[in-house]
């Protein structure tokens, strides 16, 4: 079927549509058929957001299990970890998982585990079992289910926007995945990725695989086309999103996993940062992790990998209410695999 990844920088083409392939670190996903389930579920739960109140929907769930690196740092420094430092810890830790050769790592882990068992090293046995559970979970969530990048869900959420050659601003961009997916779907896009952690530019974005295929559109023919990172127009700005000097010049302002990282008193500021840079009638797109039992369990097991920052899990009604109350009309709201997704316009 598909050519192997080492056969050049652009290993997949339109001839590979409707196929999928498990690589050591991630899934290649070229299935594009409209009838495939588990894309974007248009929740359509709320017709009139003005009728919804916090009394109806309750407050988000706060994740309280904290990464050991954070508690160690706070013990050593005798102070609360500053927010930016917590993101620096998070990005270095999370990135390590994206570049893992998961099957090889599982193999190494099992060999180590059996060595420790044979020598009755119980402390090491416990640690290796903990590593094993995390590796298995990561393998399932990121590689098998493809729940984190979720290209099918994101494509379904992003489809049908009324934009041409859009300017796209990604606030808190990390590796920039979703803006690259949008740029593939709306060719001729100019993307600005912003993150104040320079490691995101130098490692998370830089080391994002050049050979990863994004399914999008051929501008000339309107048919499906496979795009790659280095075919897209992307500028990476290392700065605090609060310092940006742009005007209302972007067709799309995007954030993925940002709103849930601040307590309620700061959420209006985060939402305002989206409005500040979006053209009149432009789109804001936001996703946040869904509050489900399996997500709560994921963040508990992966706490040492991911929980350096303040973090909430919310449902789509809660997320929508934050967005609505901040002065946006909600164009589309629903679920992708592990996130809620909202497309909105400034009122
Ligand atoms: C949770 S990440 C987003 C999730 C992302 N898709 C991932 O895979 O990690 C949020 C990103 O926002 C960045 N960030 C948070 N506050 C910021 C700020 N005030 N200015 C710029 N970037 C910020 C963090 O450095 C982090 O990389």
Describe it.
The longest helix is centred in the middle third of the chain and has 23 residues, at 122-144. Helix 3 (83-98) packs parallel to helix 8 (198-205), helix 4 (102-118) runs antiparallel to helix 5 and helix 6 (151-158) packs across helix 7 (177-185). This protein has helices at 54-57, 68-77, 83-98, 102-118, 122-144, 151-158, 177-185, 198-205, 267-277, 293-301, 303-306, 316-325; strands at residues 20-22, 27-29, 41-42, 61-62, 167-171, 190-195, 214-217, 224-227, 233-238, 250-256, 278-289, 312-313, 328-335, 339-346. The termini are far apart. The protein contains twelve helices and 14 strands. It is α/β, with parallel strands linked by helices. S-adenosylmethionine binds at residues 87, 91, 94, 172, 174, 194-197, 200, 240-242, 256-258. Residues 87, 91, 94, 172, 174, 194-197, 200, 240-242, 256-258 line the site of S-adenosylmethionine.
């Amino acid at each position: 079927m598909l050519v192997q990844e080492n056969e050049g920088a652009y290993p997949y083409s339109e001839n590979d549509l409707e196929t999928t392939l498990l690589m050591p670190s991630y899934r290649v996903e070229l299935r594009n058929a409209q009838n495939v389930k588990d894309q974007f579920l248009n929740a359509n739960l709320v017709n009139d957001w003005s009728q919804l109140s916090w009394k109806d929907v309750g407050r988000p769930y706060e994740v309280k299990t904290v990464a050991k690196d954070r508690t160690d740092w706070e013990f050593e420094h005798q102070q609360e970890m500053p927010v930016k430092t917590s993101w620096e810890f998070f990005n270095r830790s999370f990135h390590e998982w994206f570049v893992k050769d998961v099957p090889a790592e599982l193999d190494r882990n099992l060999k180590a585990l059996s060595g420790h068992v044979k020598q009755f090293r119980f402390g090491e046995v416990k640690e290796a079992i903990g590593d094993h559970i995390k590796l298995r979970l990561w393998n399932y969530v990121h590689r098998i289910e493809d729940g984190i990048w979720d290209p099918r869900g994101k494509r379904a959420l992003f489809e049908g926007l009324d934009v041409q050659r859009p300017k796209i601003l990604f606030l808190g961009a990390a590796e920039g995945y979703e803006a690259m997916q949008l740029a593939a779907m709306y060719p001729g896009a100019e993307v600005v990725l912003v993150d104040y952690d320079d490691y995101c530019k130098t490692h998370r974005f830089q080391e994002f695989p050049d050979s990863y295929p994004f399914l999008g559109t051929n501008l000339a023919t309107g048919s499906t086309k496979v795009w790659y990172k280095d075919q897209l127009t992307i500028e990476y700005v290392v700065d605090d999103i609060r310092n940006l000097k742009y005007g209302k010049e972007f067709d799309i302002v995007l954030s993925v996993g940002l709103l849930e990282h601040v307590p309620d008193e700061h959420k209006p500021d985060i939402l305002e940062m989206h409005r500040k840079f979006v053209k009149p009638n432009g789109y804001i797109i936001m996703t946040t992790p869904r509050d489900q039992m399996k997500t709560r369990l994921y963040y508990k097991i992966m706490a040492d990998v991911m929980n350096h920052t303040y973090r909430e899990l919310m449902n789509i009604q809660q997320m929508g209410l934050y967005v609505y109350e901040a002065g946006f009309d909600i164009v589309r709201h629903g679920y992708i695999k592990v996130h809620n997704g909202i497309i909105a316009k400034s009122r």
